[in-house]
Specification:
Length: 301
């Protein structure tokens, strides 16, 4: 997908962007589709110990034969945290910083994982490029300051296209902390979801709206956007009522990232037509719930 962003916005993330893009390009086997997913019960407890016989896979409603299946806990993790620093979340900033620092220390394994920190208000800023050093990420979190408007979609889009896309394959995750009410972006929610699906990035979103105790129309719209980000990319949306719960939300994300399954299947549709293919992993047990990205884009000749 060609970027529709003006040069002035793209330059906000210049720095080592060219190097990041040159390091790796998304390569997709036409027929082979790889999926990472988690399974929970009705009480949202993570389920482990399941096998390929516990699932069916469908692409555009057509059954697919699972080729490989395994529990996956050791894939390299690429985790970017994007924190909304607009004026509307100023009162929650200290708790967001503490939760983010704890996440980096508890989740980033220096021998295989990498983390990055992004902040956004009406502009997008990389406070720390990808690194395997949690202490460096923690120092960057301490530099966060609150600002003005909210360019949520721009932040997610640029972080994925200009940074995460160039990282090694594995688990690619973007964690958004925001009220979700975008009022300054140049790209749309749909465009942002498309870039996430193209590069297989799971988005986890943590809403700050319930913490304020108000439920305005803008907040409801923001929560719907955050829920859509998570639902269509195989992530998870959190809506804490207390700022102290942010740390628990980060712990839940960390646990979920270490409790995933991986499967591959050979698509029955070999066309290189660039179309969007809907995916469904259907558990045979009606009490099981699968979280997986909603689909992928076929390659183009």
């Amino acid at each position: 997908m060609n970027s529709k962003l003006p040069a002035s916005l793209i330059l906000l993330l210049c720095g080592s962007a060219a190097a990041a893009q040159d390091e790796g390009t998304l390569v997709v086997d036409v027929e082979l589709v790889s999926l990472l997913f988690t399974v929970t019960d009705d009480d949202n407890r993570l389920l482990t110990g399941l096998t390929r016989g516990d699932f069916e896979v469908f692409e555009d409603g057509v059954p697919q034969a699972i080729r490989d299946f395994e529990a996956q806990t050791d894939l390299p993790l690429t985790a970017a945290i994007a924190i909304d620093v607009s004026g509307s979340i100023r009162d929650q900033l200290r708790f967001e910083q503490e939760a983010a620092i704890e996440f980096f220390y508890s989740t980033i394994e220096p021998s295989r994982d990498r983390g990055m920190l992004v902040t956004f208000d009406s502009a997008v800023q990389i406070l720390q490029e990808f690194t395997n050093r949690p202490e460096v990420l923690a120092d960057a979190v301490g530099q966060i300051r609150s600002g003005g408007g909210t360019a949520l979609y721009d932040a997610a889009y640029l972080a994925i296209e200009q940074r995460i896309a160039g990282q090694p394959e594995g688990r690619r995750v973007l964690i958004l902390i925001s009220d979700g009410d975008d009022n300054a972006s140049r790209v749309s929610l749909t465009e942002t979801l498309e870039i996430a699906q193209r590069y297989d990035v799971a988005i986890y979103s943590i809403s700050t709206n319930s913490i304020t105790g108000n439920r305005s129309r803008e907040q409801e719209r923001g929560d719907r956007a955050l829920e859509r980000f998570a639902g269509e990319t195989g992530g998870r949306a959190f809506f804490p009522f207390r700022v102290e719960s942010l740390a628990v939300n980060f712990q839940d994300i960390s646990e979920e990232l270490r409790s995933q399954y991986a499967l591959t299947y050979v698509s029955t549709n070999p066309a290189r037509d660039g179309t969007y293919r809907e995916i469904e992993i259907r558990p045979l047990d009606d009490d099981h719930r699968v979280k997986v990205r909603s689909g992928y884009y076929a390659p183009v000749d």
